[in-house]
Amino acid sequence: MIAKIGKGENLWGALTYNQQKVDNEKGTVLFTNKIPDLWDRPYSVKFFHQYFEPYLIANNKTEKPVRHISLNPDPGDKVNDKDYREMAQQYMQEMGYGNQPYVVFKHTDIDRTHIHIVTTCVQIDGKKISDRYDHPRSMEVCRKLEKRYNIKVAGENRSLNQSPIFKPVDYTKGNIKTQLSSVIRHMPQTYSFQSIGAYNALLSQFNISVEEISGELHGKMRKGMVYFATDKNGKKISSPFKSSLFGKRAGLENIQVLIEKSKMKNNPSKLILKRTIETAISTSKSEASFKTQLLEQGIATVIRKNDEGRIYGITFIDHNSKSVWNGSQLSKELSANSFNKLWNEVEIKRETKYDHNDHFNLSQEICKQQFLTDSISGVFDGFFSGLLSSDTNEDQEEQIFESQMKKRQRKRRKK
To answer: CATH code at 7?
Structure first.
């Protein structure tokens, strides 16, 4: 089982994303903690939100008070609702959230069912629940749950304890060839990737760059690869090293074989990674916060831009599943063009100003909000439809009004 912990500040967005699944009959509310059960009427985002609000008010200094957690058993595991409830309770208890309000949603929109948990790390007394080392602690809890419920161990076909530890190349320490070798000799066998570009994005995390070369030798055209050490900005700072210096595994022929094998391999972590990225998009406000949130989940993001600042490539490196994906391979909605459109629209939305006392302007804001929702929903195939809009115009107006009030309060504080 794989657990993903999303950290953000948009509680309404996290709740709406999950409740939208329930409303569309693609999910259910399995369990609530410190939130009353509703037997006579359906749940709503507004209902859930009111039970979190006292906790959020108790501490408004924590930048990311929201926790959006997903527990993902192996696709071959069959977990019933009773076990899901117990697994969620044990996980939350051992992670320190046992006394917090939280909602457990079961998603059934794909063949592999899984659960999402929404909670807050702020306690009722205003103290923050520590999230130090939460990733290794989460992995430990998952191993316990796997044993207790007899479900498959995540990555059981590979020995996690025997995985090599790769360190970025440090040019100032000398022995460049040795440092390069410690990564290049083993990296291709440890991670999966589907193009030379993806391989290069992976190496860039360790201050290494690779290039294909071709030339004539003894009357025949030859192709090969050379490696460079780079600085933190990706600039080459060493002379080229032939791949033959690091063995056949680092050569072009072997890399191409690994690429073809990776293309044919059905990687179950692909969908989990896609959903984690979508969640990070919904709970982040900028490129920087998006990358930080994913990095906290063990996912590195490599973004390539031209001189004008336009994104022309985006690659995600999942260190949990040891796989590398270009955004377009995960989904067309996660391509470079989609991120350009998304972040540009967010900036436009931030810069727009409104008259808080004019009902006409408020109506205009609702229209603009709906326009942005429709535009982004088209790009992200409906994923944002539950995050930027509610089921009714009244809910939309209420969200916008609340947003305006928060802006108003922030302005007052600055005065």
So the answer is: 3.30.930.30
Same-domain pairing of 56 and 183? no
Residues 6+ apart with CB under 8 A from 226: 210, 211, 213, 240, 241, 242, 243
Residue 90 lies in a domain: yes
Helix (H/G/I), strand (E/B), else coil: 209: strand
The rounded Cα 347 to chain-centroid distance in angstroms is 21
Q: Are residues 167 and 190 in the same domain?
A: yes
Report CA Rg, the chain.
Answer: 24
Each residue of 167-215: pLDDT tens digit? 889 988 888 998 999 899 888 888 999 999 999 999 999 999 999 988 7
Considering only CA atoms, which of 91, 86, 99 is closest in space to residue 71? Answer: 91
DSSP per residue, 258-301: HHHHHHHS--THHHHHHHHHHHHHHH-SSHHHHHHHHHHTTEEE
CA atoms within 13 Å, Cβ hemisphere of 8: 28
Residue 174 domain-assigned (yes or no): yes
> What is the Cα–Cα distance from 129 to 121, expressed in whole angstroms?
5
C-alpha of 311 from chain center: 18
**How many CB atoms sit inside 10 A of residue 270's CB?**
17
- Tokens 């179950």 identify what position? 268
pLDDT digits (tens, 9 = 90+) for 132-172: 888 888 999 999 999 999 998 865 443 333 445 578 899 88
Q: Give the whole-angstrom CA distance, residue 325 versus residue 261.
A: 14
Of 264, 288, 323, the last residue of a domain is 264
306 found inside a domain: no
Token output for 42: 């359906």
